[in-house]
Amino acid sequence: MKRLLLVLALLLFCVAAPLLAAFCHHCGKQMPDAANFCPACGTASAGSFDSAPPMGTPPASPPSSAQPKQPAPVIISGPVVIQPTTPVTINQPVMSPIEISLADYDAVNQMELLLSNSNYDVASREALKLKRQHNERMNLIASRYSGYGPYQRRLHDLHVLKFNALENYLESWKASERGPDVARAQAEKDRALFMLAQTNEAIDVLLSGGGSLSSIAEAEEIERRMKRTTVNYVVTAPYILVDNQRLNRGEPLWVIDVLSGSAKVLHMGRGRSSQPICGWVSVYDLERRSNWRSDPVFFYSSAPVPPVTTTVIYREPEPKIIIIAGKKRYPYRHRPSPCPWPRYPDRDRHDKHDKYDKRDKHDSRDKYDKRDKRDDKRGPYKHHSYVIVDPKFW
C-alpha cells in the first residue's frame, strides 16, 4: 500500500513538474529557474530584472537632492474661435507725372531751322554743336523718363524720332554733295524729308490735342503709318518699267504713295544719272513684279479733292462766206486760150447745153466744136448759180 502511494506521488510530480518549469519565450526551450538568459539562444528571460522586492521591506525613498518630477501637461479640448482681423490700409503718397517742357527739345528745333535755311558747309559745322547740346539734354531726361506719363513719353519719343530723321537728312545731304552716288543719296534725302514731315504732323496732333487719349492714339497711328511706308521693297520679276526706264531684278524701290490704282515709286539703288528714277506705275503691275502688297489699313492717303474749275465755252465766229453772183460757166471755160482774139462771144451758147435736160436746145454751131462732143461723154453737168470761196485761200 505504501509502495502504491509512492508510485502515484512520483507520477503526479512528473506531470506537474513541466508546469512549474521556466521556458524561453523566444525559442521555447526550458531554462533553469534562476536563469536570467536562455542557454540556447541567449535571449533575456521576461521579468528577470524587475523582480519584486520582499514583502516586509518598504521601498527606499528617493534622496532629497534628486530632481522633482514635473507634472504632466493637461490638454483641455474645446471649440476654437478665430476672430477675423480688420485690414489696415496704408495710404502711400501717389506720385504725379513729371511735367515736360518743350525747352528740353530746343536743340532739335534749332537744327531743323539750320538745315532748311543754310548751305551744307554752315549746316554741317553748326550741327555738331547742336548735337552735343541735344545729347547732354537727353542724358538728363533719361533719369526722369520713368516718371513720365503717356503724353510726356509720346512727346519725348517723337522728338527723338525727329532728331534721328534730321541726322539721316544731314548724312544724305553730305553724300549728295561729296559722295560717289549722287542719285542714291538724293533718294535717301527725299525719304528723310518724308519722315521729318510725318513726325512733325504727329507732334502737331499731340500738342493740339492737349495730351488727350484720342490725340495720343492718332499720333501713334501716324508713326506706325510712317514706319510702314518708308520700307524698301525689291523687284522680283526680271524687270519693271518706271518712267520708261527699266529696273532689273533685285533692285530696291520705295513706294511713296498710292492713289487711284497707281503707285508712286522711287528707285533707291545705284543711280544711273544725277537724279533718281521716280514715276507712277499701276498697282497691279507693282504687285506682280515686286514683293510689295497693298494694305488698305496703312496705305495710303486718300485721293485729293479736285479743285473747282470753271469752264467757259466761247462760240467760234462763223467763217466769212463770199458769194460771187455770175453766169453759169463750165470749169474748162476758165482755162487760158491760145488764141489772141476773144474766143467766146457775149452770148454764151453753152448755157443750155445739157443732154439730160429736155429744155436744152443745141446750137447748130456745136457740131463744129469737137470739144463739146468730147465733153458730152462725161455725163451730166451741175449748174452753179454762185461760187463759194473759202476764207483760208484769201
What's the oligomerization state?
Answer: single chain
Task: Round the Cα radius of gyration to an integer and report it.
Answer: 63 Å
Shape: elongated
The SSE string, one letter per element, is HEEHHHHHEEEEEEHEHE
Overall description:
The protein has 394 residues and is α+β, with helices and mostly antiparallel strands. Among the domains are: 98-228; 231-318. Helix content is 36%, strand content 11%. Strands 3-6-7-8 form a four-stranded antiparallel sheet. A two-stranded antiparallel sheet has the order 1-2. Strands 4-5 form a two-stranded antiparallel ribbon. The longest helix is centred in the middle third of the chain and has 29 residues, at 150-178. It starts with a helix and ends in a 5-residue tail after the last strand. 16% of the residues are buried.
What keyword list fits this structure?
four-stranded antiparallel beta sheet, 8 helices, alpha+beta, two-stranded antiparallel ribbon, 10 strands, about 400 residues, elongated
Helices, strands, pairings?
Elements: H1 2-20, E1 22-23, E2 30-31, H2 106-117, H3 120-143, H4 150-178, H5 182-208, H6 213-229, E3 232-234, E4 239-242, E5 245-248, E6 252-259, E7 262-267, E8 278-282, H7 283-289, E9 322-325, H8 370-376, E10 386-389
Antiparallel strand pairs: 1-2, 3-6, 4-5, 6-7, 7-8, 9-10
